[in-house]
Write a sequence for this structure.
């Protein structure tokens, strides 16, 4: 279940199941539609979130550890921030996979689509949070009314 407040801030947890990627995308899509985000920003953010959640689900941790997902849209500065936290050790690194490799392209996509991204230690010291930011100019905001729908 997603928690929402009036500051364009959504946070939720997903179990370590492949369907978590789709659930996360659906919640993001609903939030961005409610915030009036245009399709181009929405598509890029959905793809980046998919990659971040997929990576978090692949981290070797006990099955009962959940993945935390959050996104914040700061209207005043025109910034959308996505965050995905997991309890795993290590720090993801941007690689350069070869043409024949089937893995390792997730952060390459994140790096190409997001304006900035990075990793920080998770609050409480267990695991990490990978984040990505998108600059959202006013032209990327469509006039809409009503509350955020989180699917």
């Amino acid at each position: 279940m997603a928690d929402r407040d009036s500051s364009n801030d959504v946070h939720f947890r997903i179990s370590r199941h492949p369907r978590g990627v789709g659930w996360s995308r659906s919640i993001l899509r609903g939030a961005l539609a409610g915030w009036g985000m245009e399709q181009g920003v929405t598509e890029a953010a959905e793809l980046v979130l998919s990659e971040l959640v997929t990576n978090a689900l692949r981290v070797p941790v006990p099955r009962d550890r959940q993945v935390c997902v959050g996104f914040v849209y700061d209207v005043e500065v025109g910034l959308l921030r996505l965050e995905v936290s997991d309890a795993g050790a290590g720090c993801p690194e941007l690689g350069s996979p070869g043409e024949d490799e089937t893995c390792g392209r997730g952060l390459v996509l994140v790096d190409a689509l997001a304006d900035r991204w990075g990793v920080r230690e998770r609050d409480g010291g267990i695991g990490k949070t990978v984040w990505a930011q998108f600059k959202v100019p006013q032209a990327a905001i469509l006039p809409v009314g009503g509350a955020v729908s989180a699917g």
Q: What stands out?
A: The longest strand covers residues 67-74.
